[in-house]
Amino acid sequence: MLRKKRIRLALMTSVFPLLTLSFASPQVVAAKETAASSPSLSAADSKKVADNYLKKHSKEYKLKSDISDLKHIQTISTKVATYVRYQETINDRPVFDKQITVTINKKGKADLIVSGYAPYKEVKSIKNKQPVTNIENKALKGIGAKSKDKWAPTINKYGYIIQDGKAIPSYRVVSHTKKPFGAWETIINAENGVVLKKKNLNQEATGVGKVFRPNPLESKGSTSTFKDKNNADSPALTRQLKSVHLYNLKGKGYLKGSYVSISSKAKTYSSTNTFNFTRSKNSFEDVMVYYHIDKMQRYIQSLGFKNINNRSLVANVNGTNDDNSFYSPSTKKLTFGTGGVDDAEDAGIITHEYGHSIQDNQVPNFGSSSEAGAMGEGFGDFLGATYEDYLAPSSYGKACIGEWDATAYSSAKTPCLRRLDKNKVFPRDLKGEVHADGEIWSQALYDMATAFGRDKATKIILQSHWSLTGNATFKDGAKAIIAADKALYKGSHLSTIKKIFAKRGIPTK
What we know:
By secondary structure, the protein is an alpha+beta fold. It has helices at about 45-55, 130-145, 215-220, 235-240, 280-300, 345-360, 370-390, 405, 435-450, 455-465, 475-490, 495-505, and strands spanning about 25-30, 70-75, 80-90, 95-105, 110-115, 120-125, 150-165, 165-180, 180-190, 195-200, 205, 260-265, 315-320, 325-330, 335, 400, 420. It has four domains: about 25-120, no CATH class; about 130-200; about 215-360, Elastase, domain 1 (Roll), CATH 3.10.170.10; about 370-505, Neutral Protease, domain 2.
């Protein structure tokens, strides 16, 4: 679990196919070849374009010449580009966490290739595959848990991992346990039951909680004398509550809508759909989460994206007494904690967590490498900080996320969970910790918003995600952003974008 005073707001990973045991650096090539003349291709034609390009350049990407081990799993079409995604397979089973994406522009050209494909010399044979029950029991034993401690059903999938040039038949098991708490991914050798890899997929984060827009410090424009005092009301804090509309409620008196569905111990209900609470009531955080997630999804759609996380996300508010919150990629749910300042009282923290859900939806297994994890953290911080700036456009709290939450552990004049203006440079300032390293990526994104506005920056960044794989690098991300700007705005921001990434030490070629 993440501890607020040490590490906060975490990386996002996603479900099948998952796992990185040995990281093969993804290859990125700006593909320039004309693949079709039509400015608007069907999904089938787009796949054909991608297939032909990969076959022709199979040696360059170390693929089989007929790409017979690449399984097409998704084609996403937008107004400006189409994204074709493939899963590497062996014997029609997934090689966990090994994918390729092909970005095709409006002219029908393969414009960008991001490859996480892992070549191998040998496929290990298997004589006796372990029974699934044995495998799941070994997974529980490997994390020190018992079957009675489950909080959700176990998930398992059979496939392969690549280690030292060898393809090893394996199971990927996700165990949802209370002790130790998490959604634990365990990779187990399918023949001998040896645990090869384990990690907690519940990437947790701190947060805080009528609604705060975005939090009492920013709406007030100063630290004032606000204190949490174990969720106590105060006249000063109550004056910072704002009346808002809660759109598209479908829960017959409950906070359930098109984009978020609240699940909490408060069981917040109103027969008249009137949800006016002060922060001393648990229902207040329910309203906070519903409002801010709903508003963020509506904002994403206002940018022209109808296919990014367009679903009713289940949010378990006040779901744990710990000073942690997390998005679980295996269950696709959010959970917020109540330690310190309640996590769901700060819109920036809520939005950061929603950012992990967004990337999980756009890119399977995003965040499986250290740089991708840092990019995930940086994107979440960018999303939260720019949202806070939009809601409270004063100079207080600029380039900062989680001011209200940070009052629980910071005595700074402007308390802040993390900043987006530390002028960190890659690779000089790498610490090997995704939250700290994420400040390199978040500042680049934040500088984009400063240069040409939140809307254009967010649109380019969201568009770029489809070009990525789960273990993409900073360089991959920067190149994808450049490709997205070309697709959306004919490259009108290229000079500025290149300067921004150069200042952060991130290459774009």
